[in-house]
Amino acid sequence: MFITLDLESEEPIYTQLKNQIIAGIAKKELSPGEALPSVRALAADLGINLHTVNKAYQQLKQEGFILIHRQKGVVINPDGVPKADAVYWTELSAKIRPLIAESVCKGVSEAEFQELCHQIFAEFYQ
Amino acid sequence: MFITLDLESEEPIYTQLKNQIIAGIAKKELSPGEALPSVRALAADLGINLHTVNKAYQQLKQEGFILIHRQKGVVINPDGVPKADAVYWTELSAKIRPLIAESVCKGVSEAEFQELCHQIFAEFYQ
DNA sequence: TAATTGTTATACTATTAATATAACAGATAA
DNA sequence: TTATCTGTTATATTAATAGTATAACAATTA
User: Fold this and answer.
1) HTH gntR-type domain location, by residue (chains A, B) (predicted)?
2) Closest CA to D17 C1' — which residue?
3) Is residue B2 part of a domain?
4) CA A83, CA A119: separation in Å to the nearest integer?
5) How far apart are CA A62 and CA A68, in angstroms?
6) Are residues B97 and B45 in the same domain?
7) CB distance from A98 to chain B under 8 Å?
8) A92 and A62, same structural domain?
């Protein structure tokens, strides 16, 4: 599980970190129960601050991706990630809608959009 | 063309404004060449500051959705919105990828995801 | 001449992102 | 016992962004 950060990006560091861990779980590079580095170890490894890693971990915990034991450390949720519920579908729609609106304006067909999504799904099913 | 803002939202006001104008173009509620309110008029109408509207307009201009004539006002691009190019496809992928990664983690199948996209596309082709 | 247009400039408040230290409490290893 | 490591909490600072508030400018139009 490699993590690469773009410190010049407009995307906050903690968001990049969150998304890469989520991608790692989706690609099964990270398995349920598997340990993640401590906040201090990962911060040192990535050359960033302890609190930036902690912010990413706290949000991942809040969303059910990981568990944090006070003295044992951080692990990928052994029970798996909570399944999509109605709230998640609503939030997902709200995130995708502006992307589709812009695509429609720019002449992207539904088939082209679906093909792009298909290719991205394939990245997670290797 | 109705615009509704959620001043409590974490989404910046100028972003909400941008997205609703883009959605208006996608739904053909706004046609090429059609005039938009002046920055002052729209700001007064929405109860927000002139500069917030101006920021949205400037970004829409930068991305080719609208034209701004110094004394004539603001119009939807009469030549239509620039078609998707390689850069746009790359940016679109980067925005969709984390959404798909999270969906995969939460047990959403590709078919379910595609169906959601299909329904959203349908909103723009009524 | 007066009003309206986009534009620019300055200033201020509030929030967020990121960093820097420091300390605490509980568990574990020497 | 002591030292170390864990997540956690607290405080402080810097930088950037979002939003607002005025004010003024230049060009067009009524």
Assistant:
1) 11-79
2) B12
3) no
4) 23
5) 10
6) no
7) yes
8) no
Q: Are A27 and A65 in contact (CB under 8 A)?
A: no
What does each of the 126 residues of chain A score in pLDDT, given as a tens digit? 889 999 999 999 999 999 999 999 999 999 999 999 999 999 999 999 999 999 999 999 999 999 998 777 899 999 999 999 999 999 999 999 999 999 999 999 999 999 999 999 999 987
Same domain, residue pair B117 and B93:
yes
Q: Does the beta carbon of B113 lie under 8 angstroms from any beta carbon of chain A?
A: yes
How many structural domains is chain B composed of?
A: 2
ipTM of predicted assembly, 2 dp = 0.93
Amino acid at position A26, single letter: A
Spatial separation of the C-alpha atoms in residues A52 and B61, rounded to whole Å: 35
Q: Which residue is nearest to nucleotide D28 (CA to C1')?
A: B71
Residue B65 belongs to a domain with what CATH number? 1.10.10.10
Examine the domain organization and report whether B35 and B65 are in the same domain.
yes
